[in-house]
From TrEMBL:
<comment type="similarity">
    <text>Belongs to the binding-protein-dependent transport system permease family.</text>
</comment>
<keyword id="KW-0472">Membrane</keyword>
<dbReference type="InterPro" id="IPR010065">
    <property type="entry name" value="AA_ABC_transptr_permease_3TM"/>
</dbReference>
<dbReference type="Pfam" id="PF00497">
    <property type="entry name" value="SBP_bac_3"/>
</dbReference>
<feature type="signal peptide">
    <location>
        <begin position="1"/>
        <end position="28"/>
    </location>
</feature>
<keyword id="KW-1133">Transmembrane helix</keyword>
<feature type="transmembrane region" description="Helical">
    <location>
        <begin position="288"/>
        <end position="311"/>
    </location>
</feature>
<keyword id="KW-1003">Cell membrane</keyword>
<dbReference type="GO" id="GO:0043190">
    <property type="term" value="C:ATP-binding cassette (ABC) transporter complex"/>
</dbReference>
<dbReference type="InterPro" id="IPR001638">
    <property type="entry name" value="Solute-binding_3/MltF_N"/>
</dbReference>
<keyword id="KW-0732">Signal</keyword>
<dbReference type="GO" id="GO:0015276">
    <property type="term" value="F:ligand-gated monoatomic ion channel activity"/>
</dbReference>
<feature type="transmembrane region" description="Helical">
    <location>
        <begin position="323"/>
        <end position="343"/>
    </location>
</feature>
<dbReference type="InterPro" id="IPR043429">
    <property type="entry name" value="ArtM/GltK/GlnP/TcyL/YhdX-like"/>
</dbReference>
<dbReference type="InterPro" id="IPR001320">
    <property type="entry name" value="Iontro_rcpt_C"/>
</dbReference>
<protein>
    <submittedName>
        <fullName>Glutamine ABC transporter substrate binding and permease</fullName>
    </submittedName>
</protein>
<keyword id="KW-0812">Transmembrane</keyword>
Length: 482
């Protein structure tokens, strides 16, 4: 038992050490930085038709980095996760159309403002809502953590509307288009770019934005002074020589197809699939990799918990029950944020998103595995143990030679089912910046605004993989029973 426990602990520690080592190696040849961003915020941050990260923010950052002689690794994730990654020292800076506010100044140091924007609001085309007063009793869709959300929150009581939140802009737009919400608020240039790109919304205040404010590049307060100084110096230079204006005009004046691809590649399922096949394939490979590594380690951990759950020792049984209770009762997304953002904030040690994702899967899926493993062992007839003991076998040897082999046969369908659940649960890890299949879909939708077609493709891919796993499950179950 102790040897198994030590082996599993060593494996998990090795994963974390690998992730930590990778994070540190990126900084070994200073100046190299980890920069977080929200890649679902066109025209500031998004993926183009070649799956390259582009936008006003990205071009500004890339130009400044080249001129000032530093390199960086880009970490795309949700806006909230990006800001929290910097606050917990998981990333050195964040550039994501981030408005400079007094509240954020308490946590971050900001660069020289690089873009002045304001808040716009939009409704579905042909909507009868034309003024904020018309929103009374209606629901407004907002992207969490944004300046648009903050402004809407500040006026919701005045105008009597309700609020619903989403983690990305496109989903909030779709909620309005589908009639679930009456309007959405966001940064005016972002709304205008979405409409220009084919999103069926009408911006109600195209020339009169609310709460005009500035965007800034941010680092954790008191940290990364050299990075902030380099950004400010580079920004001053590109502003002076006209490079900045060229970057902004490149995105605000260009046709949407310049970055999204031709209409033929976006207006059909086949066109989207063929023009983004490499992105879909890359996302699927990451999903399968996470699933395989996660389920192998979770199975080992779950087996150990299951064995502990039927041990003679009351302490081991209690420990197993406690661990299973804790990690089955904790939402997986909360656990992922706790490991990726919470622990580094306390320990000061960076954990790679992949390592955090694997550890999340191991702890969460392993708890469920431990529960059915324990149940499988307990389901073996009591007479089997009595017969083994009557033949002179010790309790430990009876478990190893008689109970565990019979229990494992009963558990085969449960293991395959857990494999399928783990595959689907990997989609939650996109929140901490892992570019798996679901996050791949989100990035493509942000670029081409073809939510229905893209998510239909993603759904079919998941169904195909799950169907193959189900066939495998049936085949393995028949072999084990024969």
């Amino acid at each position: 038992m102790k040897n198994r426990l030590m082996t599993l602990v060593t494996t998990v520690v090795a994963i974390l050490a690998l992730g930590t080592g990778l994070a540190k190696s990126a900084n070994a040849s200073e100046p190299h930085y980890i920069i977080a961003t929200d890649a679902t915020y066109a025209p500031f941050d998004f993926q183009d038709k070649n799956n390259e990260y582009v936008g006003i923010d990205q071009d500004i950052l890339a130009t400044i980095a080249k001129r000032e002689g530093f390199t960086y690794t880009l970490k795309p994730m949700s806006f909230n996760a990006a800001t929290q990654a910097v606050a917990s020292s998981q990333a050195d800076g964040v550039i994501a159309g981030m408005s400079i506010t007094d509240a954020r100044r308490q946590v971050f140091d900001f660069s020289t403002p690089y873009y002045r924007s304001g808040i716009g609001w939009a409704t579905a085309k042909n909507s009868k809502i034309k003024s904020l007063s018309d929103l009374k009793g209606k629901t407004v869709a907002l992207k969490t953590g944004t300046a648009g959300a903050q402004y809407a929150e500040s006026i919701k009581d005045q105008y009597g509307f309700k609020i619903t939140y989403f983690s990305d802009s496109d989903t909030s737009y779709r909620d309005v288009i589908n009639g679930n919400s009456a309007a959405t608020f966001g940064d005016l240039p972002v709304l205008q770019y979405a409409v220009k790109n084919g999103t069926k919304l009408t911006v109600q205040n195209p020339k009169d934005p609310f709460n005009a404010g500035d965007y800034g590049f941010a680092v954790k307060k008191g940290d990364s002074a050299a990075l902030l100084a380099a950004f400010n110096k580079g920004y001053a230079a590109i502003k002076k020589d006209g490079t900045y204006d060229k970057i902004v005009n490149k995105y605000l004046d260009a046709k949407a197809s310049t970055f999204t691809g031709s209409a033929a590649s976006n207006n059909s399922v086949w066109g989207i699939l063929t023009s983004n096949h490499s992105a879909f394939w890359s996302g699927l490979k990451e999903t399968l990799y996470l699933t395989v590594v996660g389920i192998v380690l979770a199975s080992l951990w779950g087996m150990l918990l299951g064995v502990m759950g039927v041990a003679k020792s009351k302490f081991l049984r209690g420990l197993s029950t406690t661990i299973i209770y804790l990690f089955r009762g904790m939402p997986m997304l909360v656990l992922a944020f706790f490991i990726y953002i919470g622990l580094p904030a306390v320990s000061g040690t960076k954990i790679s998103a992949f390592s955090a994702g694997i550890l999340t899967l191991v702890l969460n899926e392993g708890a469920y595995t431990g529960a059915f493993v324990r149940g499988g062992f307990n389901s073996v007839d009591d007479g089997q143990m009595e017969a083994a003991r009557s033949l002179g076998l010790s309790h430990a040897k009876a478990m190893r030679k008689v109970i565990i082999p019979q229990g494992l046969k009963l558990m085969v369908p449960s293991f395959i089912n857990q494999f399928i659940i783990t595959l689907k649960d990997t989609s939650l890890l996109s929140a901490i910046g892992i570019l798996e299949l679901t996050q791949t879909g989100t990035l493509i939708v942000t670029r081409n605004s073809q939510g229905f077609r893209v998510w239909a493709i993603i759904a079919v891919i998941y169904l195909i993989v799950i169907t193959l796993l189900t066939w495998l499950s049936n085949w393995v179950e028949k072999r084990t029973r024969s």
